[in-house]
Amino acid sequence: MNIRIVLLSAALVFTSPLLARDNTDVLVMKNGDRMTCQVKGLESGVLYVSFDYIDGTASVQWSKVARLESNQLFIVKTEDGSVYTGKLNTPETLGGQPVMIQIVEAPEKKVVLKSPQVVGISETSEKFWQRFNGQLNFGVIYSKGNQSTQYNFGSQTEYLRERWSAQATYNSTLSASSGVGASTRNLLDLSGSHLLPWNNYFYSGLGSFLQSSTQGITLQTTIGGGVGRYLKNTNQSKISVLTGLAWQGTNYRPSIVPVGNQNLAAAVISTDVSLFRFNKTNLSITATLFPALSQPGRVRFNTNMTYYVKLIGNLSWNVSFYGNWDNRPPANFSGSDYGSSSGLTWTFGLK
Fold it and tell me: Rounded to 5 degrees, what are φ and ψ at 327?
C-alpha cells in the first residue's frame, strides 16, 4: 500500500507541469503594475500566478491586488461559506472604494463580491488531473554516536469540486538505534466533505488506518462521520469543528495475555485550525477526541501539528508534532505514542 501511495504522489507531481494553459489573464496591482499571467488560485491570502518569462509559480499578496481578469473557469469560496463557479473580472470602482470581484456564472447571471470576502479561488476543469492539490514531506536525522537514524515521510493529496472535496494523507516515521529495536508508526487518513445548504456548515466522512509499534497496534481502523461548521474562514485563518460518531477496531500484537481484536463505538469531536502569514509561515493543527460510548470512561485522542516556513518557490521547511493517546490501553501495552520531526515540504497543484 505504501508503494502505491508514493507512486500516485509522484505521478501527480510530474503530471502537473504538463497541464498548463495560455497566460492570458490580466493582473493589476494597487501600485499600478499591470501583468499578463496565468492565475492558478487563491489560498491563505496568497494569489498564485505564473508567467511565460518566469520559471515556477509566483506568490502575490491578495490584499495588494486592484484588478483581476480571467476567462478561465474557477471555483470561488467566500468568507460566509458561499461557493460560486465562473469567470472573473473586476468592475470599475471609485477611488478609495473596496476592490470588487465579479463572478460571471452565465451571461445572464453575475455575482459581485468585495475582494476581502473572497478566501479561496481554485482553477477547475473537466479534466480529472487538473483538480488535484497536495504536498510531499521528507526528513532524515542521523547520529553517529549511538548509530541512530530517524526518518519521516508524508504526503497529502486533495481533490476539489465546487461543493465537495476529498483528501488523503499519509504519514510514516521510523526510529532505530544500535542495540534497540526499530520503532515505526504509519497512518493513512481518508476524508471527504460536502457543503450543506446553510453557509459554513458541512457534513464529512472519515476513515483512518494506524499502525504503531510503540503502542503494540498492528492495525487500528476508524470509520465515522458527522456534521461540522467553519467558525472562521478568512485570508488569515481557518477554523472548523466537527461532531459525529465513529467505530474503531484495533488489533494488537501477540502478548503473554492474549488481547485479540477490540471494537469500540465512540463519539467524535474534531477541530482543524490553520493560521497563515502571507507567503512566509503556516501553522496547521488537527485534533480529534474519541470518547467511548461502548466503554464509558475510555477516551482516545489523536493530534497532528505542523509549522511551515517558506524557503523558495514550492519548497518549505516544516517542524511537526504527532501524538496518539489511550487512557485505558490493554494491560502491558503503552497508552501513548508521540514524537516530533522536521524536514522539507514540496507542494504541487495550486501552489
Answer: -75, -10
